[in-house]
Every structure is written in structure tokens, then in C-alpha cells.
Fold each of these.
Amino acid sequence: MRGNLCAGAALAALLLTGGAGVAAEGPTIPAFVKGDAKALEDRIIAWRRDIHQHPELGNRETRTATLVADHLKKLGLEVQTGVAHTGVVAVLRGAKPGPVVALRADMDALPVTEKVDLPFASKVRTTYNGQEVGVMHACGHDTHVAILMGVAELLAKRKAEMAGTVKFIFQPAEEGAPDGEEGGAELMVRQGVLSSDPKPQVIFGLHVGSDAHAGEVSYRPGPAMASSDEFKIVVKGRQTHGAYPWAGTDPIVAASAIVNGLQTIVSRNVELIKEPAVVSVGAMNGGVRDNIIPDKVEMIGTIRTFDAGMRAQIHTRVKEIATGIAAAHGATAEVSVNLGYPVSVNDPTLSAWAVPVLEQVAGKDKVSLAPKAVAAEDFSYYQQQIPGFFFYIGVTDPATPVDKAASNHSPHFKVDESGLLVGAESMAALTLAYLNSH
Ligand code: NI
């Protein structure tokens, strides 16, 4: 994608599309996008409500996948099911030759009991990692699926005007697979979703959020969402009577010193002016009663970064600090780091190209630069393979201040469905503008 951008491409797109919806600069979107999307709005909302009422956890999205696959087959797409467990991948070929664009929607819900008063609220309960839980689309992935189903229909009806190919990726388990299972974007990539024919050159994805009003769109070029890794430290000492601490080795004191030592990683070691980072200890367990110094203390925590080098540096420093401080106390520390999602990096060139498209869709005053998000997103695995652009769609009712709106993952998370139209328009517009200008 890099190096292909030029004024000539924009002009060619202008001629190809009849020049409607023309912005002062940048790629142009076909005039039919808004009307076509509007005509699909009621059905997108109906799909979203159906999926909302029947949420499924990661790697268990069988009903959702069937709904998606049936729809895509009816549209005449080449549909593959059972990818990375329950994923659906479909290919739409335009009438004219051109590049391949991938579009991704995640399908999974969360173990959250819905507390929103809606006629289509979820009443679903299931077992998750051995516990009985409610299930809710508390992160809005129901809207992502419905939006992409709408975009598939819009593009399928316009394939005569389409110069290139679209690969639709309906992905399971973005929120993580159940214990002991693999899943999500990492598994889809490993199963060849981006390397098999037709091989996409770029990928687009979106996420709805409570932090903006319906109608608003935001984006962040470069590192946009954090990597997320879990660490575990087991500090081993020697058990003894609490009244005779000199007779043993106290892992509680050593572990406390380690917690303090970990605070120096972000403040003293990482190059803070380059990117922020977070190291937090989330749990610390050891001992059973007041007068016994225990054998060991276990602690777990999270590491968030926006840079692959810093990520590696922090992993090294956690190990050095924990083992070094433990040794100074006559104890030992075993450190393990469980790799989570990598940093989500929006390709800067693709982002710069995409912003004028979003501005044409939503209006210049509704498109803004988003702050970095310390949450993680497995769209990052696709972005490690090909240039990708992941952007945000507001879904808070304009009458509610965003700081009063229940956040994503809350049992009170409520979607203003008027935001879905903007999502569908954006995805369709990005796809057509890319295909017609590359
Ligand atoms: Ni999400």
C-alpha cells in the first residue's frame, strides 16, 4: 500500500465514481454509499437486536456464525465456515480487477449479566471456566457483526462497480478463548486468513464505544491500543514461626520489596517521552495465619505498552528486579510472562489516507483524533501481517454526557443504534475508496 498514494489515484477515483461526495482533498467515496447504507439501516438494527438477544462466548459463536454464513451465501459470496473454531470467512469479487481488502468483525460476547432494560435484552446463561454466568454483548461486538453483514450486502449489490476483491472476516473469541483453548485473530492468522488466496493488502476494522456520541468517529494513527501481558512471580522463602523470623526466610517481606521495585521500571527504566507504559500488580497471596511466616508468596500483574521494544525491555526488567530483590532477601523468585495481545498499530500511511474518507462519511466536525487506549485488541495480529486501520464509532445517546454513560464491558452498556449507520457507511466507503484508488 505504501507509495501508491498520489493525486492521480484520487483523480482516477473521482472519474470512476462520477465525482459525487467529493472532498477538497483525498480519496472520494461513491455517491451511492450513503443511500445504500440508509436503505439497509433497519435490517442492520434488526440483525443487531437478534444477535444481542442471543449472545455467545468466545469459540462458541455457532448460532451467530450460522446467521452470518447463511446471509453471505444468499448474497452469492464464497463462504468458508469453521475457521479458527467458529469463524466465517467470505470472498466477494468485484467485476473489475483491483486490490484485495479485508474487513473484520468480532463475534463474541462476555460473561456479564445484562442489566439494560430492553425488549431484546439477553437472558442467556451459560457455564464459563466452570462457573455459571450470564452472557451479554457488553462490548458491542453484536453491532460489529450486524454492520459487516450490512456492508457485505451493500457491496454485493454494487460488485459491478467494484474494482477488486473483499475478504470478510467474522472472527471468534476476540475477548480471549476459554481456558485451555486457542482462538481469536492469532489463530485465524495462523490458519492463513491473510496469507491464503485472495491475499489482502490491507485490513479495516472498527469498534463501537461508550466514550463518544452516536454519529462521532475517532481514530489514532500509529500505536493506538496497548499490548497486554500477564506476569506471575512466585517468591519462595522458608517457613517458620512468626515469633522467630530469624529462623526462616520471609517471602512476604521479599515480595513487598519486589512490588516496590517494580514501580521503578516505568519511572526509571523506560523512555517515557517515547511512549507510556503500565506495570500493575493485581493480586498477592501468601500465608494462612498471624503467627506463621509462609513458604511462598504468589503475585500476578499486567504489563501494558505501546512499543514492541519497551515491551521486551519491561519483561526483562520484571525478571531482573524480582530475582535480584528475592536474592537480596535470601529468597528466590520464579517469574513467568504470559504473552497477551501485541500493540495495535494503525499504519500511518493508511491512516492518513483513511481520515478524509471518514470525514466525508461523518462530517469533518464529527471526526477526531482519539487518545491512546490502554485496553488491548487482537486486531493487532492482523496489523502485524499487513497494514491495518482500526477506528472507533461512538454509540452513546447524544442526550447523555459520555462520562455518565456506562462503559463497554459494563452490565449497563447501552448502544444508541443510530451509530450503526455511520459504522456501515464508514466501512463501505473505506472499502470502495480503497479499491477504486489503488
Ligand atoms: Ni471489544
Amino acid sequence: MQNKKSTYLAKTGFTRIDLRAVLIDMDGVLYDSMPYHAAAWYEAIASLGIPCTREEFFMYEGRTGASTIDLIFNREYGRDATDAEKESIYRHKTELFSAKGVARPMPGAADFLHEVKAHGLTPVLVTGSGQQSLLGKLNCDYPDIFSPQTMVTAFDVKYGKPHPEPYLMGLKKTGVEAWQALVVENAPLGVEAGTAARIFTVAVNTGPLADKVLLDAGADILLPDMTTLAADFDTIYRNLNH
Ligand code: CA
């Protein structure tokens, strides 16, 4: 763990870590919603006769819908989708996602948030999601954790992950520097965004991708799930703040 800290300091040029806040992604971290998103994407794209796999949509997590559709269209047809195509495909995907029911809170996430608060740190939500259904659920499933001042959503930023903007906005809203925060992410593009913002980034591999994908994206440490992160949080905190 100490060598992970040394590597981070050498990489960023910072001289210390003094934790004040934890910037937390939503889909795949606080909610077990990614299998629903991936299945909805797969069904929407496959219904057009375009070959694709469920797993590839875990790689695109964090991209905007329009950018995901363009990526698929360029592979299949060698061109971007038109605005009308994007609108129609994204609407279909959203309908398929909603029909799958309510995503359940990720096992271990409530314990993890409790640990964050118990260590005197501010939990901050940083998501590219603008799904009002999930954002509305947040205060029911995780009461008294987040407030509008400690939430960055699709409505707050111009660029999605892997651009660092969402995490930089999280730092700004909280009034802390990059070396005073941790990022918790499950997706390769989210990990890229966290490290591009020069924040120590914890990857939790809650999906089907190989660990290597998250490590190659720049994760400072990798854990298998949120339950492990909750159990190890005190150790991580002590080692980083040491
Ligand atoms: Ca995520």
C-alpha cells in the first residue's frame, strides 16, 4: 500500500495526501445497475441487425449515449449516426433499461459510505448519469449522505468521462485539492477521468471486465467489490494519510 502511495506521489508531483473527501461514482459503484444498462444497449443495437456483445458495453460505460452510438455506427457503417438515428436508438435503449426494473443498491456500498462518514470525510457523488429515477432513489437508499452541494451529475458538466471535468467539478464544489480526495470508480473511462484529475483512484471491479483493463486505465489500487472496500477502508485511509 505504501508503494501505491509513493507511485501516486511520483506520478502527480504532489508531496502528500491529506484526505478530506471521497468522490464516488454511481452506476456500478452505489447501484448494481450496469448489467441492466449493458443488456439494454445490447438489445437496442442487436435489434438493428448490428453484431455486438453485452460485454463491450461495460467498456463504454461513462460515454454519452450519442458517443456510444457513433462508435458502433463507425464500426459497422463507417460513419456517424444521424441525429434522428441517435434519438431513436437512445430512446429505445432507455425504454429497455426502464423495463428491467429498479436497480438494487450495490452490496457493501452502504457500509462503505458509513466508513467514509466515520472517518470525517465528505462523500461526493460524481456521475455522468442524468437519470432522474436513480438520482431520486439515492436519498431513499442512502439517506443523509449527499446534498445538492455534494453532487455532480450530467446536468453540471459539459464533458463526460474520460474527461477529468466531472471530478475537477467535484473537487471545486467540495473546496478540496486533488491530493485531498479519493475517487471510487468501476469503469475504465471513469478511472481515466479520476487519474486525469490527478486524484488517487480506487477501482472496484464489480463487472465482467478483466482486472487488467482497469489497471491499464490507471487505477492506483484495485479491489474486487464494494464489500471489500468497506472492510479495507480504514487500512487504506491510514496508509494514504500516513
Ligand atoms: Ca460507473
